[in-house]
TrEMBL record:
<keyword id="KW-0012">Acyltransferase</keyword>
<feature type="domain" description="N-acetyltransferase">
    <location>
        <begin position="1"/>
        <end position="157"/>
    </location>
</feature>
<dbReference type="InterPro" id="IPR000182">
    <property type="entry name" value="GNAT_dom"/>
</dbReference>
<dbReference type="Pfam" id="PF00583">
    <property type="entry name" value="Acetyltransf_1"/>
</dbReference>
<dbReference type="InterPro" id="IPR050832">
    <property type="entry name" value="Bact_Acetyltransf"/>
</dbReference>
<dbReference type="InterPro" id="IPR016181">
    <property type="entry name" value="Acyl_CoA_acyltransferase"/>
</dbReference>
<protein>
    <submittedName>
        <fullName>GNAT family N-acetyltransferase</fullName>
    </submittedName>
</protein>
<keyword id="KW-0808">Transferase</keyword>
Amino acid sequence: MDLRVVSYDHPDAVKLIAEVQQEYVVRYGDEDVTPVDPAEFAPPLGLFVVGYLDKVPVVCGGWRAHDSDDPQFQDGDAEIKRMYVVNSARGRGLAKRMLSELEHTARAAGRRRMVLETGTKQPEAMSLYSANGYERIPNFGAYKDHPLSRCYAKSIAD
């Protein structure tokens, strides 16, 4: 897989983000309403990555920096957003590889903890994060009080 850092509004990122939003509609009845500013995914505030197989975009994910100026976060947090693998490429370990890349790039940018929000109707996501050292934390963000929301964190400090 070829991993490339792209802008959040790069055409391949936009295509995959639209697909993940449609996945949320199928599973939850609506798109993710978490506020997202594309500038949050540009260095040094964050990063967005698209993975390609045979030059076709098949996986994406990004992180955006947070610090304790927002009481829901700690200094050095990096929030994962828009992790997604297209249906035809699932089951090949691409999500794990993307997760590893996001952790690596966040650590290199000085971030110390990865955080994320997912939901109970995404059991494969919850399994991925748990299997890779993520632990449940109190819910945060737009879905803080939503009963289907699940938030996770993992230290990436050296």
